[in-house]
Amino acid sequence: MNVPLAPSATRSLTEERPTLERFRELRDRTDDPLSPAGAKSIIRELKAVGGNLRAVRRALTGRESGPELWSVIAALPREETLRRIDGAL
Question: pTM of the full predicted structure?
Answer without folding.
Answer: 0.85
